[in-house]
Design goal:
The protein is α+β, with helices and mostly antiparallel strands. Among the domains are: 299 residues, Thrombin, subunit H (Beta Barrel), CATH 2.40.10; 134 residues, no CATH class. It is 46% helix and 15% strand. The strands form 3 sheets. Strands 2, 3, 4, 5, 6, 7, 8, 9, 10 and 11 form a 10-stranded antiparallel β-sheet that branches. The chain is globular.
């Protein structure tokens, strides 16, 4: 019944709803505007079965979740009975870079293990297999509701969660220490689920494509389509005995048949945090304050890192910086499209309609109305309070960003905290001070200059903070003056600063000027975050009461399954095809020339003998994916793996806030291209046989 309420409430809205805001008139909404990131504890069996014409019963969902895997930051899948795992190259490229031995550059040359003995263990790599998904909301909510609101309620909920997780883990105790049970809040904390994982900790690299093929086109092609990336890697799970693990739950390889336009696909993975269930006022704050600040920070730091990398002659440093830059670019490039989307009256109009529909549902139920009617107004007030601190947010919210922030200011921040207590936190502050990683001198000057410019941009040229930061100089000159004093990269200097012996150091004098405001900002932010989380959970609770699981929760890094169909789309006045081929690789290479981001690795410069250039390479579908879905298997109704999700097109960036399949597509590596490259280019015949046969 609840699945039909969503349709009635969202699609059959009365015309009287129109006109909330002149710039974003209420729009007609769609059944799936809030997405298709379905959970395994509430599987959409009836919807899948009726829409795609097959029996999506509990056994089908069990097979799907048991063959899929979660790895750090990404997703993956078993593809043989002997622990063979497939994922995206970019999910392991940092590890591949660090695994290079003397004389090797595995990012550039790729890696192929000739036999089992050559498969290399990947440091700190784990793979989690979902054994069960259990909704524990009733017992957690009952424990919290039995206690007066406040810290005691939070503690009661935590205690109930701990008890539930221990009980559930005991049910799987026969698996020993390989079992991990994790609680995940859903619907903004309104529901709580427990996920039971079998964890594999000995993961070894089998094959990795070259970076030049996996990331062909570089940042230019990121979040675009048509696309030509061979973004794949193969790994294997090993057991405590040093032998490949038995993995009876795996996806059959679809490298012969593949998919065609119009075919249904199901993407199984772990999408990261989205903001589809936020309020309109929260979206407006993101649009007007948070996203522009993040956009400037990432854009400016990427430019600084790129400039430094281009000047470096140290190949290992260049490789490390490339991995860092690609990671930052992956976060930065979508931001401008998110801002554009939130400025689009049609998008915001649909979100207004969704919010109004929920409000209407609340008001027709007396009990719900009494509890929740004022929540949206209070949330809007919180966003107004956040906006009042926009200058502090712009100047200081990224102050302690490791890797792309100034290590000098980070060290000065923690040294100041050590000096000024409170006493019970000093030990923790000392640890944070000791953990600040130093940048090279030239890079640190650029990062420090940018941090000083952030303060000046936020507060204006005449403000006391700007004067303290720049001291009448340009930002680069002020950075030189700070760096010319005792260097915070020196451990002994940090100790002296923490002891209060360097009070005249310009970095510490800057901290003296700004830290009262920084601490007040951090305290206010923490208070607003806590109240916002509480209100979001209350709104989420009533949303679930009205709609149930017919609206899936926001992405949370927890296992999901999303459905869609293989389908091209219109763009730039043209038509994007449902799939691309290897012909496009050589067209891009010839068109842009050597030395460009479309340059090819050595073994690919001439089309390899035996490689059919007409083999499908990448394809797109309407499935609902997000960050964290990288490496997600795309499977058919009969659970054959046909692709690996590795990206979205630029029009799908708005998926953070709303799912619009008419605009967005997820982009996948076709397994036919993986199989063709393994056979004709990497000569990994043993791996191909294992994929095709499902066993070694």
């Amino acid at each position: 019944m609840r699945q039909f309420r969503l349709f009635l409430c969202l699609v059959l809205l009365p015309a009287a709803l129109a006109g909330q805001q002149p710039a974003a008139a209420v729009q007609q909404t769609g059944r799936f505007d809030l997405g298709k990131m379905w959970t395994f504890e509430y599987p959409p069996s009836a919807y899948f079965s009726s829409t795609y014409g097959f029996s999506a019963d509990s056994a089908w969902f069990a097979r799907a979740r048991m063959a899929a895997l979660r790895i750090p930051g990404c997703s993956a899948a078993f593809v043989s009975a002997n622990g063979l795992i497939v994922t995206n190259h970019h999910c392991v490229r940092g590890s591949v870079n660090s695994m290079s031995r003397s004389g090797e550059t595995l990012l550039d040359s790729g890696f192929v293990a000739a036999g089992l003995a050559d498969e290399r263990r990947i440091p700190n790599m784990i793979a989690d297999q979902l054994l069960a998904a259990v909704d524990i909301s009733k017992e957690v909510d009952a424990a919290g509701d039995a206690v007066t609101a406040g810290p005691q309620r939070d503690e009661a909920r935590r205690a109930a969660t701990t008890t539930a997780l221990a009980r559930i883990k005991a049910q799987f105790a026969k698996e020993g220490d390989s079992i991990v049970v994790q609680s995940v809040p859903l619907y903004n904390g309104a529901r709580t689920s427990a996920y039971v994982f079998r964890r594999y900790t000995d993961i070894r690299l089998v094959v990795a494509a070259e970076l030049g093929m996996a990331n062909i086109g570089g940042d230019w092609d990121n979040f675009t389509y048509p696309r030509y990336a061979l973004d794949f890697a193969l790994m294997r799970a090993y057991g405590p005995d040093g032998r490949p693990m038995s993995s009876p739950n795996f996806f059959a390889w679809g490298g012969t048949t593949g998919v065609q336009a119009g075919d249904a696909v199901f993407v199984i993975g772990n999408p990261g945090a989205t903001r589809r269930l936020t309020t309109v006022s929260q979206l407006e704050y993101q649009r007007d304050v948070a996203l522009p600040v993040q956009n400037h920070f990432l854009e400016s730091r990427i430019a600084a890192l790129t400039s430094y990398r281009n000047a470096s002659r140290n190949e290992q440093e260049r490789s490390n910086l490339m991995v860092q830059i690609l990671g930052l670019s992956n976060s930065w490039k979508p931001i401008s499209r998110r801002i554009d989307g939130l400025r689009d009256p049609a998008v915001m109009g649909r979100r207004i309609a969704i919010e109004r529909a929920l409000g209407d549902s609340i008001r027709v139920h007396a009990t719900l109305r009494a509890q929740y009617d004022k929540l949206f107004a209070r949330m809007a007030d919180l966003q107004r309070q956040r906006s009042k601190a926009s200058a502090a947010f712009a100047a200081f919210s990224q102050l302690n960003t490791a890797g792309s922030g100034s290590s000098t200011l980070q060290a000065a921040y923690w040294a100041w905290r050590v000096q000024h207590g409170p006493t019970d936190s000093v030990a923790r502050f000392r640890q944070r001070l000791a953990s600040v990683r130093n940048a090279s001198a030239a890079l640190e000057k650029s990062l420090l200059s940018l941090a000083l410019e952030d303060i000046a941009r936020a507060y204006g040229p005449t403000h006391a903070f700007t004067r303290a930061a720049l001291n009448g100089h340009s930002a680069p000159e002020a950075a030189d003056a700070i760096l010319a004093a005792a260097a915070f990269s020196d451990t002994s200097v940090r100790r002296k600063a923490a002891a209060g012996e360097l009070s005249s150091h310009p970095a510490l004098k800057l901290m003296d000027a700004v830290m009262p405001t920084v601490l007040a900002f951090e305290a206010q932010k923490a208070k607003l975050d806590a109240e916002e989380a509480s209100i979001s959970a209350q709104i989420g609770r009533v949303r679930f009461e009205v709609y149930g699981p017919s609206i899936p929760p926001d992405g949370s890094g927890s296992p999901r399954i999303a459905d869609g169909v293989v389908q091209g789309y219109e763009y730039n006045g043209s038509l994007a095809p449902p799939y691309t081929t290897f012909y496009g690789v050589y067209d891009r290479n010839r068109s842009h020339g050597e030395g460009s981001d479309w340059s090819l690795p050595y073994r690919w410069r001439t089309p390899p003998a035996g490689l059919d250039l007409g083999t499908p390479l990448n394809f797109v579908s309407t499935a609902d994916s997000y960050g964290g879905n990288s490496g997600s298997p795309a499977v058919t109704k009969d659970l054959r793996i046909v692709g690996l999700n590795f990206d979205r097109n630029i029009d799908a960036m708005i998926r953070d806030y709303i799912y619009l399949p008419e605009r967005g597509r997820n982009v996948m590596v076709d397994v036919r291209a993986i199989q063709a490259s393994l056979s004709a280019v990497y000569r990994a015949d043993r791996v191909v046989r294992e994929l095709v046969n499902g066993k070694m």
